[in-house]
Write a structure and sequence with these properties.
Number of helices: 2
Distance between the termini: 161 Å
Order of helices and strands: HHEEEEEEEEEEE
Number of strands: 11
Helix content: 10-25%
Largest sheet: 3 strands, antiparallel
Length: 240
């Protein structure tokens, strides 16, 4: 009987190991343990590799940490910030910051910045009227200024100052009468600057009944003061 059992087992050597039944003991090459180990190793390796790929990518920090001067990396990374900057119309907008030379740089609305401001048509540039342009921009108007004789000498140039067009009148030098030390009457108006002291000069010319009448002015503390106004009586002519 014992010889027959050994022969039967030897005959089964040619059969694949996976199908060999136990012959008087446990089969140490049980593939279930090996398969489990291989599967575990593959799963662990794949999971580890995936985790490394995810953690190695570069992303933006929290917007509250994106501020001018705060350190950052890598160079060229662009991220939103909680800080605000003025847009091209002066309204607040969320800043987009760029990592440059190791720190965040936040300036200007987008690539290329704002378009260059342009003056409106001259007829829309009116002294005292509202505007929304940089005060460094000078625009032409259709508001005239006059020379010493009442003729148009040119048109005012204006800037947008405190959201209103400001159009100062340029100085117009007027000749002075050598005999009276008075400038031409057309240049003398109340409140205008003067330097003709101790004289009384005609100014503020007006037409009355076909003739030109003048008020009398004196230079007081550097400005002309109207000391005698002329009124026009349509029936009887001008009267002081």
């Amino acid at each position: 009987m014992g010889g027959m059992r050994i022969g039967a087992c030897l005959a089964l050597v040619l059969v694949p190991l996976a199908s060999v039944p136990a012959c008087g003991g446990r089969f140490d090459g049980d593939t279930r343990d090996g398969g489990s180990s291989s599967s575990s190793g593959g799963s662990s390796g794949g999971s580890s590799g995936g985790s490394g790929s995810s953690s190695g990518g570069q992303g933006c920090p929290e917007p509250v940490d994106v501020r001018p001067g705060v350190s950052c990396s890598p160079y060229g990374l662009t991220c939103p910030s909680t800080d605000t900057i003025p847009d091209c119309n002066g309204n607040p907008m969320t800043a987009e910051c760029v990592c440059q030379n190791g720190s965040w740089f936040c300036d200007g609305p987008g690539p290329g910045g704002c378009p260059r401001p342009v003056c409106p048509p001259a007829q829309d540039v009116v002294p005292g009227v509202g505007c929304n342009l940089p005060d460094t921009l000078t625009c032409g108007s259709q508001s005239p200024y006059y020379d010493c004789y009442g003729d148009v000498a040119g048109y005012l140039s204006c800037t947008c100052d405190a959201d209103r067009w400001s159009c100062p009148q340029p100085p117009v030098p007027c000749p002075v009468d050598a005999g009276t030390q008075c400038p031409p009457p057309g240049s003398i108006q109340s409140g205008e600057g003067c330097n003709a002291y101790n004289v009384t000069c005609p100014g503020n010319p007006s037409i009355c009944n076909g003739q030109t009448d003048y008020d009398a002015f004196q230079c007081d503390n550097g400005v002309w003061v109207d000391v005698a106004q002329t009124t026009c009586d349509v029936d009887g002519g001008a009267g002081g």
